[in-house]
Amino acid sequence: MVGVRVNGLSSAKRLYQTILYQSSRTIASNILIQEPVSRIKTNLDSEMVGKSGIENLDLSWDSLLTSIYSSSPHKAQLVLEWGLQKLQKENEKNHDIYLELIHLCGKIQNTQTAMRVFTLMENQGLKPTSIILNALISAHLSSGNVITALSIFQLMQNSEDYKQPTSHTYNLFISGFANMGNSKAMVAWYEAKMASGFSADLDTYETIILGCIKLKRFEDADRFYRDMLVAEFKPNTSILHNMLVGLCERKDLVKIRGFMQSILDHKWEINMCMADKLVGFYCELELVKELEWVVEKIRNTNLDFDVVSQFHNGLIRVYAKLDRLDDLEYCIGRMLKEGVSFRSHKDVEMVVCCYFRGDAYDRLEVFLEFIKDSHKLARSTYELLVAGYRRGGLYEKVDFLIKDLDNVC
């Protein structure tokens, strides 16, 4: 690979371009994980480039390195060293490739190699930029190396050119100290950002709100969220999810309902992470009234279909758990009428168990007939039905189901 150039691109550059824009890591990571340490670099040379190289492996460099690191930190280190050696031998002059390699070092908390990449970049005649220095700060903060991160920040402050601290620099320290559990330092860096003449952008609010939620400073999170709205920023789904997490941890039902109403009024997005969190919270506490309120509120909205389905199925699970059969059947009918079906065979099986516990065999038959066009019964559901009917002495149904079971995958 060394020294080979095709269509004007160095092999190192082609390597990074291909890796950065692919998505699957499975094949390549398995190859490297199974290889002995002594063959890692050889394998990277022979297997991941050339005719059967990475362009045919559909892998992601970021995901690949993370996967290898979880199995063998030493092998991950060798992969980074291999990349560093390629850049050095080919006299690479592209800032972006050095930036990516520093970022990868930060992902696996390898600050020594990150500094070696930075030194190589300078030796190649490339001047550091704020983006590069931010990547170095991020790598050191992720490793808990605050002293070095602060030293780099001071270097940026003393610079009079393109290396000055940016808004993102301060966000890195806000996030870094939040991850370290240092709430005072987190807020101090937010205040330092404001004092330095930077205004809070959406990324700042996302960072500080997440930090407050992590550190259970819920009132501070509320304050920053209000400040964000006053500044007329539209919260993204990450901010909305983190706020919802904080409200659920406080078990403040009034504020949760008010928060959800605000989201619906503004027609902001509710994603699956938010739906999962809220449904899980309501189901755990068996809060059927709150779930009913959400289900009614999201009718005739433009919410994602899977999100709507999650709320309906969550309510069904709670009614089944509480053996409220009449409410359960009404809920199922309403859901199917709105074109929403069961998300999982486990939800169907919870309903089946509810019928069995109530000895409501005739109603169970109606239910199964009702859903047959929208839901294909899983093998485990058939087995559950066989066991339930057998306990009830309904052997004709057992025989019928067993015949059907032979045709189920």
Explained architecture:
Belongs to the PPR family. P subfamily. One of its GO terms (molecular function) is mRNA binding. PPR repeats lie at residues 94-128, 201-235. The structure is a single chain. This protein is mainly alpha-helical and 409 residues long. Among the domains are: 1-126, no CATH class; 166-268, Alpha Horseshoe (Serine Threonine Protein Phosphatase 5, Tetratricopeptide repeat). Helix content is 70%, strand content 1%. It contains 23 helices and two strands. The protein has helices at residues 11-20, 26-34, 40-47, 61-71, 73-89, 95-107, 111-123, 130-142, 146-157, 167-179, 183-195, 202-214, 218-230, 237-250, 253-266, 272-285, 288-297, 305-321, 325-337, 345-357, 361-371, 379-391, 395-405; strands at residues 5-6, 9-10. The chain has a two-stranded antiparallel sheet. A hairpin with a 2-residue loop joins strand 1 (5-6) and strand 2. Helix 7 (111-123) runs antiparallel to helix 8 and helix 18 runs antiparallel to helix 19. The two termini are 48 Å apart. The model is unreliable at 1-9, 14-27 and 51-59 (pLDDT under 50).
